[in-house]
Design brief:
globular, Alpha-Beta Plaits, 2 domains, 303 residues, cell membrane, Rossmann fold, alpha/beta, ABC transporter ATP-binding protein
Amino acid sequence: MVQAKALTKRFGEFEAVRGIDVEVRRGEAFGFLGPNGAGKSSTMRMIACVSPRTDGDLKVLGLDPDKQGPRIRARLGVVPQQDNLDNELTVRQNLQVYGRYFGLSRAQVRRRAGELLEFAQLSDRADAEVEPLSGGMKRRLTIARSLVNDPELLLLDEPTTGLDPQARHLLWDRLFRLKAQGVTLIVTTHYMDEAEQLCDRLVVMDGGRIVAEGSPAELITRYSTREVLELRFPPGQVIPAERLADLAERTEVLPDRILLYAGAGEAALEQVHARGLRPLSSLVRRSTLEDVFLRLTGRTLVD
């Protein structure tokens, strides 16, 4: 669905995307992860055919975005990071007007709007104004609107940012249904649990480059351990990192706790107690994509 080789995007002297290779397969959910400024949005805009590439090769749906942009966009659905709904129109009218942009007849947009309202669980709000809707409803409407042209490829930029857990899980359910219907998804997200839930494969970007690629499980296996032991010690007590280093493949000292990346967290905890150490609290958990993300991109805030 998408093939990129040495894809590059420059803005003046600044190189936002630095020669990345990406391949998105039909029917999968593919994710772009990375901190702010990593180049995710610039890459998505090139795939969406709204920002020309500076260098490299890019094919979307087998077509060249520079020469066949309109043909590609007619087969895409795009969910922007910020909802850009028409507040002056009703929920139903948002879908019908948008459908007309794709050349659908009035009969077609009426039928399609009804289907999408049901899909997004907004049928009971069809004739309501957009402005009073909750954030979750607006997000579902934005996704429904992106589907009005029955796209083969759906681009979602931070689809659940700012939503409460219930709304997020409802959106995940809608996206799973789309994938089951054969729609290919490309997602950017800051939520690691979302990436683990939605993505078959993903890349981690940092500084305009791809620093890791694989399925969530593959990345966790490659860059982390099966379990993580988190130990918190009383305020003011020096964390005895040197006495714990041999209990794990890797340790990480944070201001309020120490993380021990180990294959067996409970066994490591027993050894901690055997050495006479009494942490204030302990937690054994499985490694997550967030552990991978922070190891690859660091914990320092990027503006």
